[in-house]
Amino acid sequence: MKKKVSIIGAGNVGATTALLVVQSGIADVVLFDVVEGMPQGKALDLGEACPLWNSSTRIKGTNDYADMADSDIVVITAGFARKPGMSRSDLLHANASVVKNACMKIAEISPHSILIVVTNPMDVMAQLAWKTTEFSCRRVMGMGGILDASRFRSFLAWELNVSPEDVEALVFGGHGDDMVPLPRFTTIKGVPITELLPKKKINALIERTRNGGAEIVSFLKSGSAYYAPAASTFQMLKAILLDEKRILPCAAYLNGEYRMKDVYMGVPVVLGEEGAEKIVEVKLTREEKMQVKRSYASVKKLIKTLNL
Ligand code: APR
Lowest CB count within 10 Å: 71, 72, 165, 205, which one? Predict the structure, then answer.
């Protein structure tokens, strides 16, 4: 039997993530939303593409939580997306109640599942999901760092006219305006970008990465990015479903690692069948530590607002 992936929120990110899972054939999918008929229609459409993708995935669209019972992985994308001029943290209160309600249901019907939180502001929503479900922190994580790193990798590849797959990047911190892309750990086929580009150019690309989500929102006007967010979520799903033990930047619970306590934030994590199996600790310089601390303070501030 295939593993079961449930996706809460069948909007742009949720449905695109479902598409990637169905296309890959690596798990069965339940697509849930509160809007009647919409997840059913999208699931039917995706199911009808299976013969073309040689996929044997079964997909069901639903408005009934019971259909998500005994899921192996639950992805939370439910909630509101940004509009122009909004930061991710502006979504805090509206999305907190959506995520909290979803998590209470998940804890009841899929108590052994692994949770991937995508809804923004993601680090705080991951903390809320962990507190609400009372799952082990290894089984609750957030998607952000892979997306931020992918944006940084793309900008670097375009700048240097090389293939994006030859660019590796590491982004630390919260998935917010003060995320911390780290040039020292960003390489083109193993060569640090600090040896290939002037500092001014690197800083400009870091700034573009920090504003990467907002740049897309300003074009779309009525929604936020979803292709790259869904591709990033799929990378996490694949690493867990196939027990790949990949090292990926994800929001994980820190309890002393990097000298930070009781907070979900982006760090390199080994992802496998148990979830966030290990937090990888790398040595940071003083300046890098200061930047990460600044991001930590922003996430902590939001956590405090929700009394978590
Ligand atoms: N339960 C289930 N689904 C819900 C609920 C709920 N309580 N409340 C809202 N939804 C659904 C909406 O009906 C909608 O279909 O969540 C979906 C959100 O989809 P979009 O509006 O298309 O937003 P999307 O672009 O997918 O972003 C979702 O992910 O990247 C983050 O910032 C983004 O927080 C946002 C989330």
Answer: 165
Q: Is the CB of 12 under 6 A from ligand 1?
A: yes
| pTM, full prediction | 0.97
Report which of 173, 142, 140, 170 is spatially closest to residue 266, judged by C-alpha positions: 173
- Is residue 229 in contact with ligand 1, taking CB distance under 6 Å? yes
Domain ends where: 108, 142, 176? 142
Question: In the structure encoding, which two tokens stand for residue 254, read together?
Answer: 């820190």
Told to judge if 175 belongs to the known catalytic residues of this protein, a careful annotator would answer yes
Residues 158, 184: one domain? yes
Please tell me if the CB atom of residue 81 comes closer than 6 angstroms to any atom of ligand 1: yes
pLDDT tens sequence across 114-133: 999 999 999 999 999 999 99
Q: By percentage, how much of the chain surpasses pLDDT 90?
A: 93
Asked if 31 and 10 touch (Cβ cutoff 8 Å), the reply is yes
Residue nearest to atom 2 of ligand 1 (CA): 33
Number of domains in the chain: 2
Q: What is the pLDDT of residues 234-282, one digit of tens each?
A: 999 999 999 999 999 999 999 999 999 999 999 999 999 999 999 999 9
Same domain, 85 and 171: no
Residue nearest to atom 14 of ligand 1 (CA): 11
39 pocket-lining for ligand 1 (C-beta < 6 Å): no
| pLDDT tens for each residue of 56-89 | 999 999 999 999 999 999 999 999 888 888 888 8
Which residues are CB-contacts of 276 (< 8 A; sequence separation ≥ 6)?
Answer: 137, 138, 139, 140, 141, 250, 252, 253, 269, 270
Domain region containing 49? 3-142
Catalytic residue among 88, 139, 175, 210: 175
Q: Which of 98, 115, 142 finishes a domain?
A: 142
